[in-house]
UniProtKB/TrEMBL annotation:
InterPro entries for this protein: HotDog_dom_sf, MaoC-like_dom, MFE-2_N
Record's protein name: MaoC dehydratase-like protein
Peroxisomal multifunctional enzyme type 2-like N-terminal domain residues: 18-147
Family listed: Belongs to the enoyl-CoA hydratase/isomerase family.
Gene Ontology MF terms: (3S)-3-hydroxyacyl-CoA dehydrogenase (NAD+) activity; 17-beta-hydroxysteroid dehydrogenase (NAD+) activity; enoyl-CoA hydratase activity
Organism phylogeny: Bacteria, Bacillati, Actinomycetota, Actinomycetes, Pseudonocardiales
GO terms under biological process: fatty acid beta-oxidation
Domain of life from the UniProt record: Bacteria
Amino acid sequence: MPIDPDVAIGADLGESAFAWSASDVLLYHLALGAGAAPTDPRELRYACEDDLHVLPTFATVAATMRASEPPTVRFPGVDIDLAKVVHGTQRIVAHRPLPTSGTATARTRIADVLDKGKAAVIVQETDVVDAAGDPLWTATSSIFARGEGGFGGHRGESRRVPPPEREPDDVTDVATLPQQALLYRLCGDRNPLHADPEFARAAGFDAPILHGLCTYGLVAKAVTDTALEGDVDRVGTWSATFAGVVFPGETLRVRIWHEADGLVVTATALDRGEAPVLSDAVLVPR
């Protein structure tokens, strides 16, 4: 089915109600590698319920923690083969600190569909409110569908955030686990691209790759721990472009520049000659 931007853009994807518990938050944090230093009090705030603090990127999985089927990419005016899809960008705006448990309602719409020639980009926006109707977070994401462009849509603007032309203020290395993708898939993303070697090869990768949202979360944690003293409540907005894949077991180098408007971040894979992983990344503290 070809993409029909006239049908897709602005399409209301409806409301969904969901709930989460402290155990869901703990699983998510552990899937990001939290608790690697199990006696560090700052790590225990991610990995133990006694003084649990919620990393705002939990918003990316809160509504889908119970999902056990591979996702589909079927929306009004859009029907895409899952094997052609990779995550393009992600942005979370935390309107206030996330509670350790709660109930909420999400409403999602297709904000835009871009024609990049050889690929299509589908942009979704989700607003989430708590049981009282008060805003919790807004999530904006885009998926990049290879081979699905050329449908006559508009190309959109390029939103680049180049790092400053000086040495970074902070540099930290983050080791991923060989089984990181197998852990993270328990947070509700069962896409076989991240677990099935044959599926990954058919999609053009030598091996299963790490979920982009896992990379997004673990880099957010690294920036929070390094530049914000581990204070998750100071994370206001976190946005990034997925510039390349991560293979589980690789080590990422995270560079941070302290700028007036926020923290500019890059992440590269050391095992592949510092291949770019995240770019155009900015964390805006509260």
